[in-house]
Structures are given as C-alpha cells and as structure tokens.
Design a protein that fits this description.
It is a single chain. The chain has a single domain, classed as Beta Barrel (Porin). The chain is about 5% helix and about 60% strand. It is built from two helices and 18 strands. It has an 18-stranded antiparallel barrel.
Length: about 425
C-alpha cells in the first residue's frame, strides 16, 4: 500500500471510529463522482511545438463530516486518474491524490479552528491556477495560495504540497474578538527541477483584532510575520506586515470586502555566480471583493495585489483580477462563467525570467438529469506570456470537456 493509500485509509478509519464513538453526533457521508472527456489543443503550453490530445478522467471524492450547533469537522479524500487516447500522449497520464481536513469548535468565549490540505499531483495538472475563487466568506488571510509557475518543461514530474492553518479566537464581547493564527506551507518536487522550481517551506504567524461595529459593518487590524526558505537558491526571506480590513453589506444581496496593508521583506539568496545577494523591498497589499447572493444568481468579483511564495523558489508579487458568475436559468439548468487575469513578478526582479502574465477564461452549463445526477459541458482558454524570457513566446491552450457527475446531497444544504 502506498503512502497516499495509507492516508486515505486512515482517514476512513478515523471517520468510522468517530462515528462509532459518538452515536448521537450528526455524522454524514457525501460522495461525488465525475467521469468526463477532455480535448486540449496544446497540452504543454508550447508556442513552437503544439501537441494536442484527448483524455478520459475519473474524479472521485467523499466528504465525511460531523456538525452540530457548536461546530463541525470534515475529512475529504479525493483521487483523480486519467487515460489518454493516442499512443504519443500516454506519457501524460497520471494519478493525482488529494486529502483535506478541517473543523472548528465554538465555546462561550473561545473559538478554535484548523484547515489542512495535502496533494500529490503531476506537474501537468498543477501548474495553472483554477478559476474557482475559493470561499468568498473566508476571514482575512485565510486563503491558501497556489505556487504555480506555468512551466511544463518537466511534465512527468510531480508536486507534493502540504498546507496547514490553525487559529484561536478569544471573544471579549459580542462585538470584539482577538485572533491568534499560525500557518505552514511545504512544497516539494520530484526529479530534477533545478533552475526551474525549488522545494520550499513557508511559516507564518499573525495577530488580529476584529470588531463588529454594528449589524452591517465589521473591521479588523492584523499584524503578521513569515519566514520563507527555498532549497535550490538557498533563499531565506523574512517578512513582516500590517493589514486592515473592512466588510459591509451594500444591498440585501451584495457585500463589500476591502483590505489594505504594507509588507516589508528582507531576503538573501545564492545568485547565479555563487555570490550571496542581499536586499530588501516594501510592497503594498490590497484586495477588494464584491459578492452577490440572490435566489438565482451568484457573483464573486475580486481585485488585488498580494505577496506570496512561488514555485521558482522566491516570493512573488501577484496582481490579480478574477470573477465568477453562476446563473440558474431553470431549476434543472445552470450556467457558469469565470475569468482570471494575473501578473506575477519576483521580489525586486530576483528572477526576472519568471515574470509572467497569465489569463484563464471558462464557461459551462450543468443540466440536472436527476436530483443527484448532472450532465456538464465546458470550455476553457488559457493564455500566458513570460515577459522577460527571450526564449519563451506567448502560448495559448483551448480545452473542451463534457461529462457526467453524481453528487450526493448533504443535510447541511437542506
């Protein structure tokens, strides 16, 4: 049994034991299974030697959760396996493994929460950030960042990623709470990635004061510090920063989330001439998001600049605009549209050849054959350009997919 199989098995055993231990708890199991076919006209995002291919993929996950009035806990193992049709594309086949877990517990004065995510994916499937914006209701600083680089030179290698985040909230009153948060991210690549990607780890802690001014407005102030280390370049980066956030409903269905801050980073690394390079930079960080929740429509719009680890082994500044729209045409037919535009630059242009413009747009429709069975058709287009790399030109990719999804129903959604 492989390590990934052991993780999934332990998760199932743990969930089963928990169910047996507390017979009165609201445990449930919700499976989801998708079978889809996909065709891509440029699998490797290569501008000089485009290679098309078609594959069939099976995506299976199960969500085991326990929830009550004081909190919840969930465990979600997932496996994605695919097969390509043509012999010259068989080398792109992979088996990707995911494992997520999280939970929170609320008491009279203290709240405790954690979230973790583990994945082992083929480089071909992990180097381009998805259109999914994540949870729009997440607290400030609660998102996990994706260290994609957009490079597929070693397409047969794998990326192993582990994220862990935990927080403790102390409520002083109905309107005021103090949050202590810690996070860790580990990224490791198989094979020879030197000069393209680097194993790294990133540790961060933060303190935040969150105040609900009234029924409509919430503000917070946060200070944070992080330590980042990349193996390939022997890069050590220490960062500190402050951030303020504001949240307010603009209308019965619209909500505004705004944050702004400053981050100071001091770093040193081993340069290409094997000489230590030391420098420091200060960057502004901000984000603005609008969400709409209506009976038939859901909007998520986000704009921002953030400083985050990159797979090339350096911290990078990412300017990003993204938006998603979900519209229910009828009780059985739902349409979706998403767009993502980002520009990435390493701090102080330490790796200017990795400065990257990236865009991804997609659209699709989902038709409910039955209450839990859906037919899905989708189209996505990816475009990227490494702006300071003279050997790489702009590359594009077009993907068309169709499939069938079985999605179990959860009591929490009823």
């Amino acid at each position: 049994m492989t390590l990934n199989s052991r993780i999934a098995a332990l998760a199932l055993i743990s969930a089963s034991s928990s169910i047996h231990y507390d017979a009165h708890a609201a445990w449930e199991t919700v499976p989801e299974l998708s079978l889809f076919a996909e065709t891509d006209d440029n699998i490797l995002m290569d501008s000089t030697a485009e290679q098309s291919g078609s594959r069939t993929a099976l995506d299976a996950l199960v969500r085991l959760s326990n929830f009550n009035e004081r909190g919840n806990i969930y465990i979600e193992p997932r496996v994605v396996t695919d097969a390509y049709t043509a012999d010259d594309t068989k080398q792109f086949e992979s088996d990707d493994v995911f494992f997520e877990a999280g939970g929170e517990h609320r008491s009279q004065t203290i709240d405790v929460g954690f979230r973790s995510s583990y994945s082992e994916r083929n480089i071909l499937n992990s180097e381009f950030e998805d259109l999914d914006p994540g949870d729009p209701d997440a607290e400030p600083g609660d998102d996990f960042t994706d260290p994609d680089t957009g490079r597929l030179l070693f397409f047969s290698e794998t990326r192993e990623l582990f994220d862990m985040r935990g927080n403790i909230d102390f409520r002083f009153s109905e309107r005021n709470r103090f949050r202590l948060e810690a996070a860790r991210q580990d990224v490791a690549y198989s094979g020879t990635q030197s000069g393209v990607r680097s194993d790294y780890d990133n540790n961060a802690v933060s303190l935040a004061m969150i105040r609900r001014i009234d029924e409509r407005n919430t503000v917070s102030a946060r200070v944070f510090a992080s330590e980042f280390y990349a193996v390939d370049s022997d890069n050590t980066t220490d960062s500190v920063g402050v951030e303020g956030t504001f949240s307010r409903p603009l209308a019965p269905t619209w909500t505004l989330n705004l944050s702004a801050g400053v981050q100071r980073s001091e770093y040193d690394y081993l340069g290409s001439t094997l000489v230590r390079v030391e420098n420091a930079t200060t960057n502004s960080t901000f984000s603005m998001g609008f969400t709409k929740r209506a009976e038939r429509t859901r909007w998520d719009l986000r704009f921002g600049q953030r400083v985050q680890p990159n797979g090339n082994g350096f911290l990078a500044v990412r300017d990003e605009v993204r938006g998603t729209l979900t519209y229910e045409f009828s009780p059985r037919l739902t349409g979706q549209f998403g767009a993502l535009f980002s520009q990435t630059e390493t701090l102080d242009d330490a790796r200017a050849q990795d400065n990257r413009d990236y865009s991804r747009i997609g659209m699709g429709v989902e038709w409910a054959i039955k209450e839990t069975l859906f037919f899905v058709v989708g189209y996505e287009r990816i475009n990227q350009d490494f702006t300071n790399d003279l050997t790489t030109q702009e590359a594009t990719s077009n993907m068309l997919s169709l499939g069938v999804t079985y999605r179990g129903r959860s009591r929490q959604d009823q």
